[in-house]
Amino acid sequence: MATRCGLERMTQLGRPIPLDDTAHTRRILLVEDSDDDARLIELQLSEGHTEVFALRRVKTMAQVQALAQANSFHPDVVLLDLNLPDASGIAGVQRCRAVVDAPIVVLTALDDQAANHAVIESGAEDYLPKGGDGAALRRAVRYAMLRYQRDRDARLATAVFSHAHEGIMILNPSGIIIDVNPALSRISGYSAGELIGQHPRMLLSKAHKAESYATLWQKMLTQGAWQGERTNRHKDGRDYTAWESMTPCRNAQGRILQFIGVMSDITERKEAEALVLQSTELLRTAIDAIDEAFVLYDTSDRMVFCNDKYRLLYATRADLITPGVSFEEVIREGVRHGQYPAALGREEAWVMERMAQHRCANSVLSQRLDDGRVLRIIERRLPDGGTVGFRIDITDLMQATEEALAANLAKSRFLAIMSHEIRTPMNGILGMAQLLLAPSLSETDRLDYAQTVLSSGQSLLGLLNDILDLSKIEAGKFQLDLADLNPAQLLQDTQALFAGAARNKGLTLSVAWLGPAGQRYRSDGHRLRQMLTNLVGNAIKFTVAGQIHIEATEIEREDQDDQDVTLEFAVTDTGLGIAADKIDLLFKPFSQADSSITRQFGGTGLGLSIVSSLARLLGGETGVESELGQGSRFWFRVGAERALTVSTRLPTPGNPAENDSNMVATSADYKRARGTLSGHILVVEDNSVNALVIEGLLEHLGMQVHLAHDGQQALSLLQTHTCTPDLILMDLQMPVMDGYASTQAIRQWEQTRPGSATPIIALTADAFEEDRQRCLAVGMDDFLTKPIALAALVSALEKWLPEANQQATTPASTAPPQTLDWPRFEVALAKLMPLLALNKFDAIAQVEALQAMAANTALSPALMDAANAVKNLRFSQAAADLERLVAQHRPAAPG
Predict the structure, then answer these.
(1) In this model, does residue 636 exceed pLDDT 90?
(2) Burial 368-406 (b: 16+ CB within 10 A, else e)
């Protein structure tokens, strides 16, 4: 059967079979340009009785390449004629090998051993002379296929060895390198020639000891293989990290034939892992450093990580809070320990609600724990489905919020009380003022109405002073003034101050010093007077009948030689008493035990807060024991130091004032002042009511008065000589030009003209020491506070008016000293001492009233130092000077 180019035939014993029955068919590609040779080969192949061949014939190497490119025929064997029209000899074999992946059997007409050997070397599996028998041809086909398969495995192993990314070295049974692949040279830096014949230990870094290889070999031989990380030294001297394995290859008898070592350079991976580890540690450190508790749950809601603050928040479950625990397990354990007050009595429902909030994972909620702490819980879902949570301790914030709300409520109540306290005297002032406008008033009614207006105004002034005291304490502007004091005398002074008020209510007022007789102590006596005054005033206010007892003692000391002591002052009354649940509110500002009782008896609720603050400033504390309906005992303790001197003068009870007439201007006061004062006064005041009041007072004193409504107008009056005053009363807060700027301008103008400077006295409602100092700094000479007391005004006029000064310097021989009215003087002194103790600016007016009483008496010069101390706000020095002055000049008791 002839086979032409492109014709396929399937032959078995001369019988054609279907072309697709190729399960055991060997595909033969015959490359032969001779038709006769091709028919002979086809005939020889068909003689086989056990084999089936599919033969395809082509005549040129170009046709072989076309078949390979078309990928349409995949031969099991190629029968290649050695002499083709387009390829011959070894070149033809090489071209065929390049395009066909199959064994090649070369057919040649010459039986030349040298040529045949060259054919095998060029890539053919066998060669066969043409014209031989069919059995030899079929046998050559079978052997070529077997030889090609064997060689293919070897070629594959060689390809793997040569092209592997991992370094591979082959060692002989003695552990000497006999072959390496290119990758090992690339990793180590050594060429194959440098490595072959060497021991692998040459690759080790100095980080490993030489004997470490002995350990490696021992493990490999006992365990069948070894693998692990090693640090090797590159040829260039740098270290690198390698992952290595070593495996022995044995024959069927177990004898080691060779060792196979595989190496991967994992330096970059290790560096990347180190960076990841460093970043992770840095992140963990940062998370541990934040103030909030942090926790991370994975997509299965199991804990991945939490910081120490999270564990501390849930200390009762610390053993459970470990990676892997589920969120539900954590909260159920907390419920079991009673850590969530909100879950008590409804545990399962609370767990379900909490789980729902957690699954939402975009929630912010507050959670109160059993130890009182309050947490703000923030949970957020991550892109990978995990959950990150923060726990922020907001206990202080919640407490501050609650306290702020309570303080706001207290202040609201305080404002309501203040409204009552202000409106009550204001009603008296406005009501009496309207009555004073009524026609045909009797002199008695007129004086009564005026007295009511004055007393109501004094009540408002007292309220203002309490608020100023509280603001000073809260601003930290209170300063201690330590001096020696006699507690027994302090108690007697307090008794004298309140004797009249107690007697008016039918109360018994008693005092007792229970400490060492005559012992003096170093402390702030004026603060102590202020504290006692508050306590006794409250006791009288809230006691309807019975008695009030004031006592003080020195707390017993462990070391009798210790000069540091604690003094306790207590005020006991038989008043209303206080309910136990209200006691904690007593010493807080703006808080009162019972606002309904306060409405009945009056008061702002500031006094006890001031007492408590002062006690702390003096190193002590306050307290109260009370029983509702039975009375109360208020006490405070302060730190003090025993003085080295002991008082030899026994305390003497003061003469209680029968009324406040010494603080109210009388007709006699006006007449006495008119006899000593004269002059021209410029009043600079923008408020018409205040101007009217001051103008009226001055005119009743016999002064000529000129008014200016602002500082600029006053300056213009002086510069144009429209007004040439003997003294200027200057308000501070005014439009156009205030008192400060006006005074500076006046002083600058005065420097341009001859003559002495005109005295300027500040006239203001600003009652702080810094206001007084600022007035003096801009050139003012003195300081008067509103509301203006007549006695203070008279004293200032006497001090600064030229004619008054001239009369004051008249020789004593022309005006013989007068006799001092001591009972009246001591009544006024008893009023002054508590004002000094409380640092009240009213003390300035009161000391000026004392000066007026002592005018033209032997006491007048001695009183000057104490008066100056008061006007310069040195209240403690003034009190000491007055005590010394009275002790020296008080007339002896008759008999």
Answers:
(1) yes
(2) ebeeeebbbbebeeeeeebbbbbbbbbeeebeeeeeeee
- Among 590, 506, 585, 591, CA closest to 540: 506
449/63: higher pLDDT: 63
Question: What single-letter amino acid sits at 569?
Answer: F
Judged by DSSP in three states, 251 sits in: coil
What pLDDT band is residue 841 in, cutting at 50, 70 and 90? low
8 A C-beta contact, residue 704 and residue 679:
yes
Mean pLDDT of 639-663: 52
**H-only helix segments in 77-211:** 89-99, 113-122, 134-163, 182-188, 192-195
Q: In what order do the strands lie in the sheet with 226-233?
A: 177-180, 167-171, 256-265, 239-250, 226-233
Average pLDDT for residues 161-176, to the nearest whole number?
90
**Burial (Cβ within 10 Å: 0-12, 13-18, ≥19) of residue 18:** exposed
| Residue type at 541 in one-letter notation | K
Tokens of 416: 């309501």
Name the more confident of 674 and 14.
Answer: 674
Q: Which tokens in the block code for residue 678?
A: 């004269």
Q: How far apart are the C-alpha atoms of 38 and 81, rounded to whole Å?
A: 10
Model pLDDT, residue 549: 95
**Model confidence, pTM:** 0.39
- Tokens describing residue 685: 């005041």
684 three-state secondary structure: strand
Is pLDDT at 161 greater than 90 in this prediction?
Answer: no
Please say whether the beta carbons of 160 and 181 come within 8 A: no
One-letter amino acid for residue 271 of the chain: E
Q: What is the dihedral of CA 24, 30, 36, 40, to 10 degrees?
A: -30
* Among 585, 530, 246, residue whose Cα is nearest residue 409: 585
Of the pLDDT bands very low, low, confident and very high (cuts 50, 70, 90), residue 416 is low
Strand partners, 9: 55
What's the pLDDT at 665? Answer: 53
Question: End-to-end CA distance of the chain, in Å?
Answer: 178
How many angstroms separate the CA atoms of 669 and 662, rounded?
A: 10
For 249, residues 6+ apart whose C-beta sits below 8 A from its C-beta are: 256, 257, 258, 259, 260
Please give the pLDDT value at position 47.
Answer: 81
Residue 831 burial by CB count (10 A; 0-12/13-18/19+): exposed, middle or buried?
A: buried
Which residue, among 297, 316, 318, 298, has the nearest Cα to 308 in the 3D structure? 318
In sequence order, what DSSP letters do the residues of 776-840 get, joined into one string? HHTT--EEEESSPPHHHHHHHHHHH-HHHHHHHTS-GGGSPPBPP-HHHHHHHHHHHHHHHHTT-
Could you please report the per-residue DSSP string of 359-398? HH-EEEEEEE-TTS-EEEEEEEE-TTS-EEEEEEE-HHHH
What is the arithmetic mean of pLDDT over 734-756? 90
519: β partners: 646
Which of 126, 116, 68, 56 is closest to 89 using CA atoms?
A: 116
